[in-house]
Amino acid sequence: MKPNLDIIFAALADPTRRAIVARLAEGEASVAELAEPFAMSQPAVSKHLKVLEHAGLISRGRDAQRRPCRLEAEPLAEANAWLERYREAWEQNFARLDSLLEELKAEEAQPRSVKTRQKRKNHRKHA
After folding, report:
1. Which of 29, 114, 123, 11 has the alpha carbon at shortest distance from 67?
2. What is the reported pTM?
3. Sites in the chain below the pLDDT cut of 50
4. How far is Cα 20 from Cα 37, in angstroms, rounded to an integer?
5. What is the dihedral of CA 65, 43, 50, 11, to 10 degrees?
């Protein structure tokens, strides 16, 4: 099943769920272990886990009486791939801005007579 970005980002919109994901990036954990750092009940943490599980971000296994939660990589990879496209576009925009700033700096560094000649030259081009 292909991960649904809407559900993934909705699940990750909550800071408690992001903290749970961060904790699970270190390794499997039980609900009790995941609930430790939060000032909330285990049932409340379980509700967060259900949201993460529905988004495909985590899964639960069975180890005797313990049901450890683990992070699932595919939905995070899908979300990262979506974000990566925008990061690349922003980097291209920043590179163009850097280039423009370098041109402006170079233009300002030129002696006044060179600037005047360039302005005349540009003016003739556009006339």
Report:
1. 29
2. 0.71
3. none
4. 10
5. -140
